[in-house]
Amino acid sequence: MRNFDFKNPTKIIFGKGQIAKLKEELPENAKILMLYGGGSIKRNGIYEQVKEATSGFEVVEFSGIPANPEYEVLMKALKVIKEENITFLLAVGGGSVIDGTKFLASAALYEGEEPWEILTQKVPTTKAMPFGTVLTLPATGSEMNSGAVITREETKEKLGMGGPGLFPVFSILDPEVIKSIPSRQLVNGITDAFTHVLEQYMTYPSGAYLQDRFAESIMQTLIEVGPKVLNDPSDYTAASNFMWSCTMALNGLIQKGVPTDWAVHAMGHELTALYGIDHARTLAVIAPSHYRFNFEAKKEKLAQYAERIWNITEGSVDHKASAAIDRTEEFFNQMGIDTKLSAYTEDYHGTAEEINKRFTDRGWTGLGEHQSLTPANVEEIVKMAY
Ligand code: NZQ
Ligand code: ZN
Prior knowledge:
One of its GO terms (molecular function) is methylglyoxal reductase (NADPH) (acetol producing) activity. This is Iron-containing alcohol dehydrogenase. The chain is an alpha/beta fold. The chain has two domains: 11-176, Rossmann fold (3-Layer(aba) Sandwich); 183-384, Dehydroquinate synthase-like - alpha domain (Dehydroquinate synthase-like, alpha domain, Up-down Bundle). 48% of the residues lie in helices and 11% in strands. It has 15 helices and eight strands. The chain has helices at 22-25, 40-43, 46-53, 71-83, 95-107, 117-120, 183-201, 209-231, 236-249, 263-275, 279-293, 295-310, 317-334, 351-362, 375-384, and strands at residues 11-14, 31-36, 58-62, 88-93, 131-135, 147-152, 157-162, 170-173. The protein has a six-stranded parallel β-sheet, sandwiched between helices. A hairpin with a 4-residue loop joins strand 6 (147-152) and strand 7. The protein is globular and about 65 Å long. The chain starts with 10 loop residues before the first strand and ends with a helix. Zinc ion is lined by residues 140, 192, 195-196, 265, 279.
C-alpha cells in the first residue's frame, strides 16, 4: 500500500426529509446565491422544500445552468455574485450544477485576469467562497469531492479543476429525489459511478486489500440496486443504497494508497466536448476499448474483478480478464447504453486523430496508472471504440 494523506471535510446529511435541515447548516447573516439547472427542481417539489428551509435567509436565485456546465452561463452568475455581494453559494442539482457552483466559488476569489485560466493553467483552488449542496441526481460524487469539470462551447473544450478549497461545506442527500429522475439519467448515474470505481481499481495489484474490497463492494451494490432503481425509482432501500454508492465511489476514500488511471475520463470528456454525448455514455464507449488495449498491464486486476464481481472463476488469468471486459460491456448494453461511438454521431471519422492532437498540444503525453499512455495510444483506443 502506498503512503497517503486523507482529509474530507464535507458534512453529509443523508436521508428522507433532510432538505429541511438546510436552515441549520446555512451560515447566519449569509447572503446566499441559490444555483440550479433547467427547472427540474420546480417540477418535483425540491424547489419548494429548499425555499421553505431558506425562508429566514436572504436568497438570490440563478437558474439555467445546463448539463455540462457552460463557462459563458457561469460568467453571468459570477457577475451576480459580485453585484449582489453574495457570501455563500447553494447548489441545488446534479453534477453539472454542483460543478458550476465549484467553478464560481473559485472564480469569485480568483485574482488573475480571466477565470478560464483556472482550467487551462490548472490553478489549484486553495481558497474559495463557501458553498453547500442539495444533491438531486446521484452520479458524479461531486457532492463530496473537490473536483469540477467545466465546458466551453466556444472552443469545444471540457476541462477539469479542483483543489482543497473546493469541498462543499455540507451536502444534503435525500434519496427520495430519485423518484423524478428520468431513466436515461438514472442509467447515466449507475454507469458513471461504476466507471469511477473502475478508474481507481482497474490498474495493477498494490497490496491494498481493503481499498480493493471497498471498490468491489461499491460495484456489487451498484449491480444489485441499479436494476431495482430503474424498475421502481420509489424503492427507498434501492434508492438510498444507489445514492450512497455514487457518493462513496468518488469521495476520495477508495483511491487512497492505490494507483489510479483516469484515462477513460480524459478521453470521454473529449467526446462530450466534441459531440455533446452524455458524460456517462462516453465512459461506456471508451472503457471496453481502453481495457482491451491495456490488457497486459491490467490483466491481473481484470481477473480479480472477473472472479469477485462477475463470478467468472474458470480458466486462465487471460481468459477471466477478457471475459470480464466482455461482461462489463454487456452490463452497459443491458441498461440500454451503446458502447460504440458510431451509435452517437455519424461524424466520428477523424475523432481519434483530433483527440491525439489535443492531448499532444496540452502536453498530456503520459496518461494512465503508469503515465505511459501516449497520444498515439489514445488515438488507437478511440479508433477501437468507433
Ligand atoms: O437541469 P435540470 O432541469 O435540473 O435537469 C437535470 C439535467 O437535465 C436532470 N435532473 C437532475 N436532477 C433531477 C433531474 N431530473 C429530474 N429529477 C431530478 N431529481 O438531469 C439532467 C442531468 O443533470 P447533470 O447534473 O448534468 O448530470 P450529472 O449529475 O450526471 O452531472 C454530469 C456532469 O458532472 C461532470 C460531468 O462531466 C458532467 O459535466 N462530472 C463531475 C465530476 C466531479 N465533479 O467529480 C466527476 C464526473 O466524472 C463527471 O466528469
Ligand atoms: Zn465520471
